[in-house]
Amino acid sequence: MSTYIAVDVGGTQLRVATYTEEGVTPHQQARIPTKSSEGQAIDRLVDLIANLWPSHDKVAAIGIAVPGPTNPKLGILYSAPNIPGWENLPLRQLLEDRFGVPVNLGNDANLAVLGEWYFGAARGHHNVLYLTISTGIGGGVICDDRLLLGEDGLAGELGHVTVLPDGPLCGCGQRGHLEALSSGTGIAAFVVEELRKGRPSALKLNPAPNARDISQAAEMGDPLAVEAFARAGKYLGIAITNYLHVFNPSIVILGGGVSQSGSLLTGPMRAILETSALSAEYYKRLTITRAALGDDVGLLGALALARITQREVI
Ligand SMILES: [Zn+2]
Predict the structure, then answer these.
(1) pLDDT in tens, 196-247
(2) Ligand 1 center–CA 268 separation, angstroms
(3) Burial 256-288 (b: 16+ CB within 10 A, else e)
(4) How many whole angstroms from 199 Cα to the centroid of ligand 1?
(5) Could you confirm whether 47 is annotated as catalytic?
(6) DSSP state string for 207-235
(7) Rounded distance, CA 243 to CA 247, Å?
C-alpha cells in the first residue's frame, strides 16, 4: 500500500496528515502552531512530516497547500505574508531533498477548488469557480477538467479584480478590487465609515464591528447592516458576472466565514447576475452553493494534488 502525505501550511497552524490510496479519512494527523520560539517554521514542518512518516508503507507523494502566491511548476512559494522569512522559498526542492519522494505545492485557494472538485461540493462538475470570502477573498478555477494555473501558476486571484475604479483601498494596495468591497474587512470598513458620518445603527455601540457583528445586526433588520451586505453582494455579483462570461462554470462555490451570511449576501449577488449576464444561459443551470469541506479543505486539497500529480493529470 502507498501512503500520501498532505500538508496544510496556515498562518496559525501547520497540519500534516497521512492517507492511503483511496478515501479521505486520515490514517494519522498532527498539527502545531506555525509560529513558535522553538525553531524556524520550516524546520518544525520537516520534523512534523518525519514524525508521521509511515514505518512500513511506501510514500507515493507529498502535497502541500501554502498561504501565498506560489509557482507550482517551479515548486516555489513567492511569499507568505503571515510567516516571517518565507520568501522565494524553494519548498519542493527542500522537501524532495529531505524525503526523496515527489512533492507538489499550490496556493491554498487553488487547492481548495481542487479539494472541492475531487471530494466536495463540485464532484462531477467540469467547470468550477470557487471563492473564499473571509478577511480577504481568494479563488480558484477548474476549467474544462483542469486546475487553472496560468503561465507562472499565478492564475485564479479572483479577489483582486477591479469592480469599482477608484474605490476603497484593497489589502494589496490597489483600489476598487472585489476584496476591498465584499470581504469581511471591506464590509466592516464601509460600516465604520458610515457610522463616522453619523448614520443611525445599532452597531454604533460597537467601537469596531466585524463582519459577524454586522451579519447579526442585519438579521435583526438594522438598515445600515443590511445595506452593507447588499453592497458587498452587489459587487460580488458584478465580479461573478464577469467570471461567468470568462469561464462559463456550472457551479460557483462560496467558502469562508462571510459566505455563511447566506441570502444577505447571495440575494443581491444573484439579482445582479440575472440582470447583467449576457444571456440566461450563463446562470439558468448554474449551481451556487456553499463549500463542503470546512476546516479540512487545505489538507484535502493537498491530498487531491498529491494523488492527481502522481497520475499526471495536471
Ligand atoms: Zn487587491
Answers:
(1) 999 999 999 998 999 999 999 999 999 999 999 999 999 999 999 999 999 9
(2) 22
(3) bebbbbeebbbebbbebbeeebeeeebbeebeb
(4) 28
(5) no
(6) SS--HHHHHHHHHTT-HHHHHHHHHHHHH
(7) 6
Among candidate residues 43, 47, 108, 166, the one labeled active-site is 108
What residues have CB less than 8 Å from 160, skipping those under 6 apart?
170, 172, 174, 177, 178, 179
Sort 12 into a burial class: Cβ within 10 Å, 0-12 / 13-18 / 19+.
exposed
CA distance 33 to 44: 10
Q: Which of 52-61, 139-148, 207-216, 303-312 has the lowest mean pLDDT?
A: 303-312
Give distance in angstroms: CA of 157 to centre of ligand 1: 9
**Tens-place pLDDT, residues 172-184:** 999 999 999 999 9
Q: Residue 182: CB partners within 8 Å, gap ≥ 6?
A: 133, 137, 232, 233, 235, 236, 239, 258, 265
Nearest to 192 by CA among 234, 155, 224: 224
Altogether, the residues listed in the chain come to a count of: 314
At 167, list the grid cell: 474605490
CA 42 to centroid of ligand 1, rounded, Å: 28
Conformational region of residue 14, where left means phi above 0, alpha means psi within -120 to 50, and beta covers everything else: beta
Statement: the pTM of the whole predicted model exceeds 0.85: yes
The H or E element containing residue 306 is helix 297-311
